[in-house]
Each structure stands twice: as C-alpha cells, then as structure tokens.
Amino acid sequence: MPIYVQHEVLGRIPDVFNAEAIWQAPGLALFSRRPLLRDLLERSPREHKGRAATRCFSHVTLMLPQEEVDDDYHLTRGARARDLAQTLTALHQKDFGDLLGGDQVRYDVIGTSQLAPGEIEVKFGHAVYLPAADEKILYNVSVSRDSAIWHPVCPIYPNQRLALIGGEGGEASFIASGWPFSSDGAILIINDGPDAPPVVQMRPKDAFECRFDPRSGYYTIKSLREAPGGSPRLMLKIGRTGAAAPRPQASAAVDTISITPVAATVAGKPAVWQSRANGGAAPELTAIPVSHKPANNAGESDATYAPISQQRVSLVALAMPRLSRYRDTGAQAMELPFNHALALSTGGPAAISFVVDASDELYACTAEGRQRITAPATFTPVDTQAIRVLAAAPQMADRYRAMICLVQPVGASVASGARFSFGRNSPMLAALRLLDSPRFLKRANGANTASADRIGLSRDAFSFEATAQGYKIGRLSASQALYHLDDKLEFVASIGDANTDAPYLLPNGHHLVAGHYVLRFDA
C-alpha cells in the first residue's frame, strides 16, 4: 500500500517553538545528526523521476505538546505558534522553491496530549491537506457503530484530493472515534471535485467489504477477518454542505409521512388522565361473531366443512406523539426500546431506543450514547435488519412527531360480516396495542402508573367491519383523530365525525392511524 501520510516524531528539541531547530540541525556532521523536518521532506518527495525529486509536499501539520500550546495561548495569545508556522513556511519556500510547482506552502500548529516534553510530531503526504483561509467545506465526514449515534471525523475541501481515516496508532490523516478494525486498516476517500461524487476505498482492499446503501445514505464497512464476537463493522457518512445533497430514491413503502397526537380536551386541557364514570357497570365488551359455517348441502359431517378465509389487521408502525400537546398530564418523555431482533422490548438490553421528549425533540439512543435525529431516517443497529423512522405528513404534524416502522408487523385475523371496535376499552385486537403499559411513558416526579395508550387513544376509538369492497370504518369518539394512509403509507384523508349511516370505506391494504397505532387492513 502506498504511504499516504508520512508520520514522524522528532525528539530532543529544547524549544519546540524554535523553527530552525525543527527544520535543520547546525553543522555538516550529516552522519551523526538525527533527521529533522527538512531531511524528512527531502527523503520523501511527492513526485520523483528516477532518484531525482521533481516535486515536494507543501502542506505540513505540526503537533506540539499540549501543555506548551496552552501556555503559549495563555501568555501570548498564540503568537509563538503563529511565528513558528510563518518561519517554517519561509524556510520551506527558500529550500524547496524549485520543487513546489506552484503549490502554496501551508503549516498548521496544533497541540496533542500524546507527546512528551521536547517532542514534535509532523505529518505530511498525499492525504494531508490544509485549507486556504477562505476555502469552504465541501463535505463533512462522520462515522457510527450503530447508525444512530454519529461522530464527526473530518471535513473535506473542494481542492482536497485525498483523506485517509483510521484508528489510533495508525498512519491515517484523521482518527475515527470507536475505530473497530486493526491499526493497519484505513478508509481512503477520493475527491474529484464538486461535480463528481466522492469515492470510498478500503486499505488493504482484500481485508474489508464496503457497500453503499442509497436509501440510508451511508457506507457499511465490515472486516472480512472474523473476530471473537463476530465481524466488526463501521458506518461512514459523507454529507455535502451548502446545497442539499440529492435525496436517495426510497422504496414505495418508505415515503415521507407525518403524524399527530390525539387527545380529548376539557376546558382547553387534555383529558387523557381524567377518570370516566361508568356507573359501576362492567365495561362493554365487543360481541363475538357467530360461526360462519358453509351450508352442508352434500350431507357431509360437520367435521369436514372448509372454514371461510378471514381478513387480517396488522400493526405495522408505532406513531410518536407530540408530547407538548399533553404537557398538563405531566408526560415528559415517551421511549420505545427495540431489542437485538428489532422487536419492541419488554425487558432486557435494547439495541436502539427512540425517544420523544416534552419539547417534541426526537432522539435515538444506543450503547454509544444519545443523539437528536430527524425523520425520515433508517437505522441498522444490528447487521441483519434495518428499522425505519418516517416523518409525519403535514396534515398530521400537529399531533404526531414521527412513525417507527416495525420490522416484523404484528397481525390478527378478523371475520367478515360482523362489526368490531378498537380502543382502550375493547378486547378485540388488544394484542396489537403494544404500548398498553406505563413502562413506555415517563412522567414528572418519577410517576409511571398510567398506560401510554391514555395519550391519544379513546376507550372506544373506532369500529370496523370487513366487507368485499374493503373495511367500513366508523368513528366512535368525537375526541378521536383518525387518519387514512394508502398502501404506501402516504396521507389520504382525515376521517370525520361518526356517521353510522355512511361509514368510511377503507380499501384493502390501506392503513388507519389511531392513537399510537398504524394499522393495515388486509383482505
């Protein structure tokens, strides 16, 4: 592999701000003196013909002991560091002027805690670039171990050709946080200018697999060398600044959506925590449909009839409300944790959690930390599958913040020809109400006694009946908001007031949003 970054530590320098002591040792005892900066540049030319150098490197980063840099900043406001860079620039131009080829000489002086007193670290090479004073950033590069928490690595400038990213102890020009691979591995980013997309290559090539997912907009890098506990991986994102980068093509089921929280209000306040008198009577249960046996005209026994096909209702996503609408209830945060199978977790460690707080900010949380996110987005906290977060459609955005698509929808069968109801008071499809628990909702003063379903879902939200044309939907509560989404999860309509004479017809395969639940109704 070519050496993209020349990386050397110079020692025994009494004054780390003395440019002449860093550049060249005094005297002519060439065989006794240690190599300094001028010797390193001369021995490692940028281009050469035979043994003769034809071009030299012109961008050099100097790292001094952090304590020396701090003292300089405190006492002289960084004047000694600026003088050091200017003097080395002049020495560089004087000694290598005929090998610059029109390149500008640039030096940068920074501090590092990894050096002992009297040591200086220098970096130069093909993948070392220092921007001009007025040069604007073209790309920002960041990495992640779980696709949720992203750590910035470096900028890339329009005139910067190469960037080499690696871990501590390697020869990279930039260090990636949480680098999971060996020190000899590195990511090489090739920039051919603003009009060409950046190219990502791994070094060494045969040790890694690097794939770009246009839907999520990042690269997934995996080591081909098995390690204890599985092959390590790293996600790499290159985001263009200024004009927005082209939006990746999304599959039909991933288009943008919006959603909104539903709550009854009493005197201008949410009524989700208010008790509801029931006169001491037991809650009204949904009727169980009668058997739908086919007619036994052939004289066969009852045990041989074929049951009719049943329709199916599936929970495909969980809607995150805007908690600011429910401030009077004391709700401070709603958290949806997903385990390593990307199923909603009822206990144990979570691979990723999504949180919406009282200010309606959306966060992703993993073992790496917590970071604010925007929808739409795709996350792959585990290798096998991805989880999608969709934005709320404008027509629903006053109630909902986002929608978390389930990797494995939860389904239940329903018979046709009978009318059922859905809500907190209905046992029908109760298995789909995954948030019917206080563990997902955090309230003020640590109170955690009310089911999350009490935000946005009425006791009797809506009724539905399967027919040959689709599903007849009836709104049962004036405070319940219902939204119709098509088979691609795109907004269609808001379902109005209950009207038993003219129920709303929901086509087969379309979705209904009620409370936290996005339900798909299939034939």
UniProtKB/TrEMBL annotation:
| Top-rank taxon | Bacteria
Q: What is this protein called?
A: Uncharacterized protein
- According to its UniProt entry, this protein's organism is Duganella violaceipulchra
Source organism phylogeny: Bacteria, Pseudomonadati, Pseudomonadota, Betaproteobacteria, Burkholderiales
